[in-house]
Amino acid sequence: MPLGLYIHVPFCRGKCPYCDFYSVIPSGGIIDEYTKCVCKQLDGYKGRLFDTVYFGGGTPSVIGADNISEIIESANIDSNAEITVECNPSDCGENGFDFDKAAIAGVNRISMGLQSAAESERKALGRRADMHDVENAVRRAQRAGIDNISLDIMLGIPGQSEETLKRSVDFCFSVGAKHISTYILKIEEGTYFDKVKDKLDLPDEDETADLYLRCAELIERGGMKQYEISNFAFPGFESRHNLKYWHCEEYIGAGPAAHSFVDGKRYYYERNLSEYLKNPEPVSDGSGGDFEEYAMLALRLTEGLQDIRVFERFGFHIPEKIFEKAKKYERNGLMTVDDGSVSLTTRGFLVSNAIIGDLLI
Ligand code: SF4
C-alpha cells in the first residue's frame, strides 16, 4: 500500500501574529543543510512507495523549486502521485518561486494562504502580500500548468463581516481555485495575538459560527462540495494527501515537527531545527489506528463513519450504541444516519468535538 509523505519546511520570512506553526527565519546556508538532512532521512525509505507528497510548513516556497526538486528526487514517488506545495503569495512574484521548475519536478498542486480578500483583514492578520500579489501568484502557477490550486480562507478575523467573507469566496472562484480550505482563527498561546487578544475586534463564538455556515453555503453555491469539516472541492479535486489522514492511512513525516504513522506506530520529530540537523532521531508516540482513532477521523468527513469500511478494516460492525446516539443528534439536524453510516451535517461540524466525544464513550 503506497504511503503519504509529509515534508515539514520550518522556514518563514517573518512570523504572522496569529501563527504557532513551527518555523524560523532562514539565514546562511541553513536551507541547503536542511534539504540535505531531509534527503538523507528519505534515503532510509527507498523501499517505500509514496503516492501523495505534501510540502507544508512554515512556508515551503521559501526554500525554492531547486530544493523542492532535490527532495522529490530523493524519494520513491509514484508517477501518478499528487504533489502539493504550500506557497506564500509574497514569495511568488516574477522573480520568486519558480513554478515552471516545480512543475517539471512533478509538483501538480499548490495550496496558497489567501486568508481574506479584504485588504483591511489581510493587514490585521499581518499578511505581507496584497491581493494583486495573490492573483499574480495564482496566475503564474496556472501558466506553469499547475491548475489544481487550493486557497485558504480564515474565519473569525478581526472586523470580518458576511460581506467581506463573500468577497473572499468570490475571489477564489474568480481565479479558478479548485479547492478551498477554511480555518477558524484560534488564539494560540504564545502568539502575538494572544498578548493583545483583549484589544482585537474579534467576532464572538455565535458570529463565527454564522460565518462558518455562511461560508459553506457560499462555497457550495459556487459548485464545490464540502467533504470535510474545513475543506471543499470541485469533484475530483479533494486533497488525496489529507484524505489519507482522515482515512487513518499511513504516512511518513520528514523535517522538524513532522509526525509519522507507519507500520501501526506513531512518531514525530521535535520542534527544533538545530537538533534535527544534528541528530534526526524520531520520538516514539505510541501505536495508532485503533477503532476510536479511526472513527474520530472518519467523522471529520461528510461521508462519515461507514460500516462497510469499518468491517473491512476491523472485522466488526459499527457498534449499535453509536447508531442510537447518532439518531438523537439527527433529530436536531446535527447528524445524518442511515443503515450503513453515520455522519455529521455542516451544523454538526460546529460542535463536532462534543458529539464525537459522546458517540465514542
Ligand atoms: S501563517 Fe504561514 S507564513 Fe505566517 S508564520 Fe505561520 S507558517 Fe509562516
Describe this structure in words.
This protein is of the alpha/beta class. The chain folds into 2 domains: 3-245, Alpha-Beta Horseshoe (pyruvate-formate lyase- activating enzyme); 291-360, Arc Repressor Mutant, subunit A (Orthogonal Bundle). Helices cover 38% and strands 22% of the residues. It contains 15 helices and 15 strands. The protein has helices at 30-43, 64-73, 99-105, 119-124, 131-143, 162-174, 192-195, 205-221, 240-246, 273-278, 291-298, 307-314, 320-331, 346-349, 352-360; strands at 3-9, 50-57, 77-87, 109-115, 149-155, 179-184, 225-228, 231-233, 251-254, 259-262, 265-268, 283-287, 305-306, 335-338, 341-344. A 9-stranded mixed beta sheet has the order 7-8-6-5-4-3-2-1-9, sandwiched between helices. A 3-stranded antiparallel beta sheet has the order 10-11-12, with no helix packed on it. Strands 13-15-14 form a 3-stranded antiparallel beta sheet. Strand 1, helix 1 (30-43) and strand 2 (50-57) form a beta-alpha-beta unit. The longest helix has 17 residues, at 205-221. The radius of gyration is 21 Å and the shape is globular. Bound molecules: iron/sulfur cluster.
